[in-house]
């Protein structure tokens, strides 16, 4: 009885696979069909994701309100010597920071909860798929690469599904909010001709 590592057939064995492992895979960098298939793992957890999205909008509003409250405190209360108004604005700023802490903590807890559930479901589905594969699969694929994909790649996909989407939306909303606040507070400074003066 003999054992050969080179393997036969057009795809070769482990040696050929190791040589071609570092080569660039052909195909599109983003596949919408695969992305939609991955989003189905979030479907059972749409309510916590919706709550995390709502908390993200509240946190964005609070983040945008702090610089405005500082502006009011400086331009109105300090400039006019209004100590009662300054104390009120200081309390509002402290409340905004407290609310920002609570909303961010709630959002992170919800995202961690969803992330752990999605990760468990994704790994469970992959394990069932690997168990259903024929034994010949291991002749043409390196077992270490398969295990690495099950462990590492699933964690990256989990981060994208649970935290990446909400972070992307949150940063986009924050950027748009900053632009809107800047334009509403000083349209002259936001005009293209202001930088040429």
Word description of this protein:
The protein has 197 residues and is mainly alpha-helical. It has a single domain (40-184), classed as ABC transporter transmembrane region fold, CATH 1.20.1560. It is built from 7 helices and no strands. The chain has helices at residues 14-21, 32-39, 46-80, 83-132, 137-140, 143-185, 187-190. α3 packs antiparallel against α4 and α4 runs antiparallel to α6. The chain starts with 13 loop residues before the first helix and ends in a 7-residue tail after the last helix. Residues 1-9 have low confidence and may be disordered.
Question: What is the percentage of strand-forming residues?
Answer: under 5%
Number of strands: 0
Identify the overall geometry: elongated
Provide the CATH architecture. Up-down Bundle
How would a crystallographer describe the biggest sheet?
none
Q: Which structural class fits the helix and strand makeup?
A: mainly alpha
At the fourth level of CATH, the homologous superfamily is ABC transporter type 1, transmembrane domain
N-to-C CA distance: 86 Å
CATH class division: Mainly Alpha
For the CA atoms, what is the radius of gyration? 27 Å
The poorly predicted ranges are 1-9
Number of helices: 7
């Amino acid at each position: 009885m003999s054992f050969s590592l080179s393997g036969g057939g057009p795809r070769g064995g482990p040696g050929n696979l190791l040589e071609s492992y570092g080569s660039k895979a052909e195909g599109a960098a983003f596949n919408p069909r695969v992305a939609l298939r991955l989003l189905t793992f979030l479907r059972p957890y749409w309510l916590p994701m919706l709550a995390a999205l709502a908390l993200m909008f509240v946190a964005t509003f609070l983040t945008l309100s702090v610089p405005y409250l500082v502006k009011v405190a400086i331009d109105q209360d300090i400039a006019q010597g209004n100590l009662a108004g300054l104390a009120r604005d200081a309390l509002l700023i402290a409340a905004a920071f407290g609310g920002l802490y609570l909303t961010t903590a709630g959002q992170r807890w919800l995202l961690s909860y969803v992330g752990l559930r999605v990760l468990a479901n994704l790994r469970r589905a992959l394990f069932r798929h690997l168990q259903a594969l024929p034994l010949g699969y291991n002749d043409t694929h390196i077992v270490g690469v398969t295990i690495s994909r099950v462990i590492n790649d699933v964690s990256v996909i989990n981060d994208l599904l649970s935290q990446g989407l909400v972070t992307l939306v949150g940063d986009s909303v924050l950027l748009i909010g900053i632009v809107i606040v800047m334009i509403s507070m000083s349209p002259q400074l936001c005009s293209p001709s202001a930088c040429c003066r």
